[in-house]
Amino acid sequence: MLAAIFAVVVWSSAFAGVSTVVVPSAHAYSPGEAALLRFLVASAATGLWALATRMRLPDREDLPRLAMAALLGITTYHLAFNYGESTVSAGAASLVIAAGPIFTALLAVAFLGERLNGWGWAGVLTAFTGVSAIAFGEGRGGFGFSPGVLIVAVAAMATAGYFVVSKKPLRKYSALEFTFYAIWLGTIPMLVFAPGLVRHIQTAPAWATWTVVYLGVFPGALAYTVWSYALQKMPASTTASFLYGQPVLATLVAWVWQGVVPSGVTLVGGAIALGGVLLVNFKGRPTAASAGQVASGEAAVETDAVVAEVSEGE
Predict the structure, then answer these.
(1) Contact by Cβ (8 Å): 28, 200
(2) Is the pLDDT of residue 289 over 60?
(3) pLDDT value at residue 310
(4) In angstroms, rounded to a whole number, what is the distance separating the alpha carbons of residues 258 and 269?
(5) Has residue 154 been placed in a domain?
(6) Are 90 and 250 in contact (CB under 8 A)?
(7) Model-level pTM greater than 0.90?
(8) Other Cβ atoms within 10 Å of 301 Cβ, number
(9) Helix (H, G, I), strand (E, B) or coil at 309
(10) How many Å apart are CA 104 and CA 95, to the nearest integer?
(11) Residue 313 lies inside a defined structural domain of this protein
(12) Which range of residues forms the domain containing residue 191?
């Protein structure tokens, strides 16, 4: 439990950390450059761990699926998240990301043969209503449409795709192995930002560089490792339940770190979105499920717990 709490607290700090670095007024790094530097650091840290523990490399036939998971869960998620946070507050971004399980549920219906009952579809509608409220609560002047929220929603959708693609590899590889493979493979496409990073790392404020290094070592590498330990010691559904506290913690960290609190409309929208997520998770599946459907649902819950950001990912 302490490991899970530690991981969630550290992940929650990533929302404010990213926000301070990528906003244009910081004169630090672009969202793409910050993502690349963060995951170069995370790749180095996880690489050292892998060498020390003699972690096995993935089998060649699994590389396409692992690469797709990395492209969705690391590359797309973190680039969309960083670009979204350049205009959206950390607290609002955490609330949108918390609605990610809704996208996972929809993809599970479309591709994994799972079903939602009436409560489940009501939860989906409720969550989207909440995200829409957040989009308007983050607009200029406190009320008005904010495109940045939609970009963060793309990050949440990418995570949902990551969950679905990850389901098969997680039957073969441990949570730690899979996470490390995703970090390494997901960093490669970000190298397109390398020329800009090389230029700006020489002129960026020292605090910005050290903030990104912190994001790579702690939320990027250490928290994933500790989370995997927690997942080995507790049931997956129990471990995943700790993630519901992340929006509250992220908002608190942003208030302490940046002095920023989301608007009332954003907070109400976040509460509505989280209500929809809880409705889908606890009442959204048919009660008269077959044994095969129940097993499929349990596997989906386990996958969510292993790779949630974001994780994240934060």
Answers:
(1) yes
(2) no
(3) 38
(4) 21
(5) yes
(6) yes
(7) no
(8) 16
(9) strand
(10) 16
(11) no
(12) 2-307
